[in-house]
Amino acid sequence: MAHTASISQLQSPPWALVNGELVCYDDVKIHISAEALTRALSVFEGVKGYWDTANDVFAIRSPRRHYDRLMRSAKLLHIPIRFSYEEYLAGFATLGRALLVPGRDLWFRTTLYVTEGHWGEGTVADLVVTGFTQRKHDPDPMRLGVSTWRRGGDVTLPARVKSSANYLIGRLARIEVRRLGYDDAILLNDAGRVAEATGACVLVVDKGGIVTPPTSEGCLDSITVDSLEEVSRNLGIPFERRPIDRTEVLAADECGVAGTITELTLVDEVDGVTFDQSGLLARLRRRYLDVMRGDVVLPGTDLLPLISRGGQSVAGDDRVSSALTVTT
Ligand code: PMP
Fold this sequence. Notes:
The relative contact order is 0.16. Helix 6 crosses helix 8. This protein is an alpha+beta fold. The longest helix has 15 residues, at 85-99. 28% of the residues lie in helices and 32% in strands. The radius of gyration is 20 Å and the shape is globular. The structure holds 4'-deoxy-4'-aminopyridoxal-5'-phosphate (PMP). 4'-deoxy-4'-aminopyridoxal-5'-phosphate (PMP) binds at residues 46, 196, 199-201, 219-220, 222-225, 259-260.
């Protein structure tokens, strides 16, 4: 199967942000002996910013939730934090203004790399933010294979810590299923039930409602799934979190995967079993994308307007004003 390049392979942006300062992307370096490399000690968040074409405004989805999840990942790995939520938010504004192309979305990776320290003593981490533009398009359906690799349990490699190390198993799973011709893998947990895909959560449709596993089944505490749940309830579609057996996926009416970068992508096949592409998940996906892109207004949607055309900060939002005072 042909290699699908990742967004960071396709783009080399001019700027990145290191501890709040703009730095040439190619000049961001890390020492060979940093714990980020020797012990895979880094935690991160992928955060999406949407360009609302109708209103010419760039808005970030759920920045507070991403900050809180980053804090929790860092706390669980004993990585001290040296920045506030306001500074985190200001980073999106600074880098966004440097990279934004009106009409296009931006996907940010905010990573805490442990640069100093040894086995928990004297730990220091740098916050590095990179950003990559994305065109608006509706991704093609995916084909998934169930991997023989498993998602670790809470006392082995906790799924709720969004650490780079957690992606080692996902990488093995993806290599395994891509050799079989699939696009991505479903990872099962220790009990043999569905945990998640390699970079997204799994949703199925059963008896007229959407079902997805809770975090305790070994998936990341997904911010996209929370947004989808809200949109789903608004559409009157039942939404439930409960454990899902492997055979339930195969028996389901529909299947999809959800994540910040994946948004809601439909799955047309799992291990040779095919699914309907025109049901509840297709409806939910259309509404989710319409809401994120500003085409449909859903009160309570967690989109924070940040930059307007021309790079100005968006007036009238206290959270943005306070964020921008940090950078100016
Ligand atoms: N699981 C994994 C392993 C992921 O990498 C992601 C993407 N961050 C998700 C689930 C979905 O999480 P979110 O919706 O918060 O992006």
